[in-house]
Amino acid sequence: MVKSSYSVEGMTCQNCVKHVEKVLTAMEGATNVAVSLEEKRADVEWSSDAPNLDQVEDVLEEAGFELKR
Fold first, then answer.
1. What per-residue confidence (pLDDT) applies to 10?
2. What fold does the segment set 2-68 form as a domain?
């Protein structure tokens, strides 16, 4: 299991948090997702290797958010 943390910009409310959780959970290999509005962070546990940052960035951008590198 691999744990990753991502800085996510553009979240303004709990609905945003739920949306980010939903799109990250839908990614292949994601087993546990926790998103913090206050910290603007998403923590993800992956069952195998984490996807590359470009894949995570694409998913977040499609959902209307920005991955800060």
1. 98
2. Alpha-Beta Plaits (3.30.70)
Dump pLDDT digits (tens) for 12-38.
999 999 999 999 999 999 999 999 999
Residues paired with 6 in a beta bridge: 42
Q: What is the DSSP string of 34-52?
A: EEETTTTEEEEEESSSPPP
Cross-strand bridge partners of residue 44: 4, 33
Q: Are 43 and 3 in contact (CB under 8 A)?
A: yes
Confirm if 6 and 28 have CB atoms less than 8 A apart: no
Give the DSSP H/E element, type plus range, for residue 60.
helix 53-62
Res. 62 pLDDT band, cuts 50 70 90? very high
